[in-house]
Design goal:
single chain; 178 residues; mainly alpha; Rna Polymerase Sigma Factor, Chain: A; two-stranded antiparallel sheet; 66% helix
């Protein structure tokens, strides 16, 4: 069954249709939440909040954009709400991914913390844009629909990021331009 039919059934109160819709899109929600937060526990919290919000907000979906765009918008809003409510930044949390080797564990965690700190410090909208385009593989047009901005805004945000930062593995990854 197509998403549109499931959405209509779920909007009509069909719990099974809503459950199938969640099953289809749960991995996408979780993957984005993980990229946003940087660790599994927080990603699970954000995804759980997104699922609850979907249950309450599905009636507001009007089929004016792709359902996936609407879903990304929901999870972005939940991630922002979560960060405000928890009063924390993803970079302050220990990353729960296994390091490449025990000898590199501290270095690995330090690098990820620095990278997440820099992402959190970016101007409004740039983190979401980077995660959608480079993390999720959306086109500029798709990211623009999710973020409810013009395509040119997405391009500008990516340009601003590239202008401010460069990736230099010898310098520890993401570095500000001199």
């Amino acid at each position: 069954m197509e998403d549109a039919a499931l959405i209509r059934q779920a909007q009509g109160g069909d719990a099974d249709a809503f459950e199938e819709l969640l099953e289809r899109h749960y991995d996408t929600l979780y993957r984005f939440a993980y990229k946003w937060s940087g660790n599994r526990a927080d990603a699970e919290d954000i995804t759980q909040q997104a699922c609850l919000k979907l249950a309450r907000a599905l009636d507001s979906y009007r089929f004016e954009s792709a359902f996936s765009s609407w879903l990304y918008r929901v999870v972005i809003n939940c991630a922002k709400d979560w960060a405000r409510a928890e009063g924390r930044h993803a970079a302050d949390e220990l990353v729960d991914e296994p390091p490449a080797s025990p000898a590199n564990e501290v270095e690995h965690i330090t690098y990820l913390r620095q990278l997440l700190n820099r992402l959190d410090a970016l101007p409004e909208g740039i983190k979401e844009t980077l995660l959608l385009v480079h993390g999720e593989g959306l086109t500029h047009a798709e990211a623009a629909r999710v973020l409810e901005v013009k395509d040119s805004t997405v391009s500008w945000r990516l340009h601003e990021f590239r202008k401010r930062y460069r990736f230099d593995i010898d310098q520890g990854g993401l570095c500000e331009q001199s």
